[in-house]
Amino acid sequence: MREIFKKLIDYKQHITQIIQLTGTEKKAVIPILQAIQTEHNYLPKEALQEVCEQTDITPAEITGVASFYSQFRMEPVGENMIKVCVGTACHVKGAGLVHEACRREFKLGENEDTDATGNYTVSEVSCLGCCTIAPVVQINNITYGHVSTEQIPEILKDYESQ
To answer: Which residues have C-beta within 8 Å of that of residue 101, sequence separation ≥ 6?
Structure first.
């Protein structure tokens, strides 16, 4: 119980800091959600409730924005984000197969995108802007180019060694 109370206090303080920078008006909803997600890697329900308490933004407005933009996540994700680019250049060069290889590596089920340890979340993204080195995989801020399905274990090992 004490841990839950501490977490709620942390959300309140964090939201207060964000709102001091962004304001309380409805036009601030996207920067507020971005700041929350940057801190927590998703949008915790408790943090969103705190936003509604401290601003003029309603739960419906938050839900509308968070569900419209694919950048926002409502569920917890792994500590490390693996983004497989599936834009046109990457798609043509086999990004779909690379994405499936990542999913197999982490033994992800059909409706799963985070591994059992909570360390990695695998997702497809529209474009990483690295078309000349397609297909591309990005783990957090490290980008790997010309990726083949066989390289996935090697790439993970390289990332973990850094």
So the answer is: 149, 150, 152
Q: Stretch 8-33: mean pLDDT, rounded?
A: 86
Peptide bond into 135 cis (omega under 30): yes
Nearest Cα to Cα of residue 125 among 85, 90, 96, 97: 85
Amino acid identity at 139: I
**DSSP for residue 116:** T
CA distance 30 to 54: 15
Residue 10 pLDDT level (bands cut at 50, 70, 90) = confident
pTM to 2 decimal places = 0.71
Checking if the pLDDT of 96 tops 50, the result is yes
